[in-house]
Amino acid sequence: MRAAPLHGTLYTGRVIVTIDGVAASGKSSVASGVARALGVPYVSSGLLYRAATLLALEAGAPLDDARALLTHLRAHPLRLEALAGGNRLWAGERELTDELHSTRVDQGVSAVAALPEVRAWVDAQLRALPEPFVAEGRDMGTNVFPQAGAKFYLTASPRVRAERRAQERPEDVPAIEAALIERDRRDRVQSAPAPDARVIDTGPLSLEGVIGTILAALPARSA
Ligand SMILES: Nc1ncnc2c1ncn2[C@@H]1O[C@H](COP(=O)(O)OP(=O)(O)OP(=O)(O)O)[C@@H](O)[C@H]1O
Ligand SMILES: Nc1ccn([C@@H]2O[C@H](COP(=O)(O)O)[C@@H](O)[C@H]2O)c(=O)n1
């Protein structure tokens, strides 16, 4: 049997690609583009951490109290709708998606994500999703899906990332840059390239350039 390129094929039965990286390096935009090219959904793991943080903030729960957070999560089951075009996050009938990228969630999420109990809860949600999909986050290739067939880790300088993010947010570039550097520092424990990941500096590349680089690097599969 001849090996055929993966592009455009619906690859069944396992996670295809993990895309990890630093904050605002383009993970969700790139994962969405790769997933659409492959005809599969993508999964944004960060949305689960963001939703846990939002619910805790709304409840006035301390962000370092794992027991209180998990009690709250069990009382408000979250549902990640993993679509190729964009993920949506629900708490019961309420959609949280548009509230998850606020500055206050950005500032609190690393503390929540540092709690081992919360990480175990998120990992269980992710591993229960039906494969195949493209997974993006911080530890998809190292911890959650170490068996993935292809792994990538995106980087770019804080200034480049801040300039991109400034197109989406009202804050100025230096303020965004400082917040990104701080979030990277807090996330360092849970964010590292897998030994078998390809690291891509997205700084000199367009979004389409990064997506094309990943698609071109995917292993062929048996037809
Ligand atoms: N290579 C690129 N060239 C130009 N713009 C890009 C590139 N990659 C991403 N962007 C833009 O940068 C911004 C941040 O991208 P995105 O939200 O996908 O990053 P992220 O890593 O998922 O962020 P976060 O970690 O905060 O969830 C978006 O406006 C996106 O369109
Ligand atoms: N696998 C992951 C994914 C995310 N986090 C934490 O969530 C925050 C938000 O994630 P984004 O991808 O939306 O930026 C991130 O800053 C981490 O604190 C994580 O720990 N592991």
Topology:
Blueprint lengths: L2 E2 L12 E5 L5 H12 L3 E3 H15 L6 H10 L2 E4 L6 E4 L2 E2 L7 H11 L2 H12 L6 E4 L2 H5 L5 E6 L2 H8 L7 H15 L10 E4 L5 H11 L3 E2 L1
Parallel strand pairs: 2-7, 2-8, 3-7, 8-9
Antiparallel strand pairs: 1-10, 4-5, 5-6
Describe this entry's structure for a reader.
By secondary structure, the protein is an alpha/beta fold. The protein has a single domain (3-222), classed as P-loop containing nucleotide triphosphate hydrolases (Rossmann fold). 44% of the residues lie in helices and 16% in strands. It is built from 9 helices and 10 strands. It has a 5-stranded parallel beta sheet with strand order 3-7-2-8-9. The chain has a 3-stranded antiparallel beta sheet with strand order 4-5-6, covered by helices on one side. Strands 1-10 form a two-stranded antiparallel sheet. The radius of gyration is 17 Å and the shape is globular. The termini are close together. Adenosine-5'-triphosphate binds next to α1, α7 and α9.
Spell out the helices and strands N to C.
Answer: EEHEHHEEEHHEHEHHEHE
What's the structural domain tally? 1
Biggest β-sheet: strands ordered side by side in the sheet: 3-7-2-8-9
Can you give the helix content as a percent range?
A: 40-55%
CATH superfamily (homologous) name:
P-loop containing nucleotide triphosphate hydrolases
CATH topology: Rossmann fold
Low-confidence stretches are 1-5
Bound molecules: adenosine-5'-triphosphate, the ligand Nc1ccn([C@@H]2O[C@H](COP(=O)(O)O)[C@@H](O)[C@H]2O)c(=O)n1
Assign the structural class, choosing from mainly alpha, mainly beta, alpha/beta, alpha+beta, or little secondary structure. Answer: alpha/beta
CATH architectural grouping: 3-Layer(aba) Sandwich
Number of strands: 10
Specify the CATH class. Alpha Beta
Count, helices: 9
Cα-based radius of gyration, to the nearest Å? 17 Å
Globally, the shape reads globular
**Share of β-strand residues:** 15-25%
Average pLDDT, rounded to a whole number, is 89
Largest sheet: 5 strands, parallel
N- and C-termini, Cα separation:
7 Å
Organism: Deinococcus aluminii
InterPro entries: Cytidylate_kin (IPR003136), Cytidylate_kinase_dom (IPR011994), P-loop_NTPase (IPR027417)
Enzyme class: transferase
Main location: cytoplasm
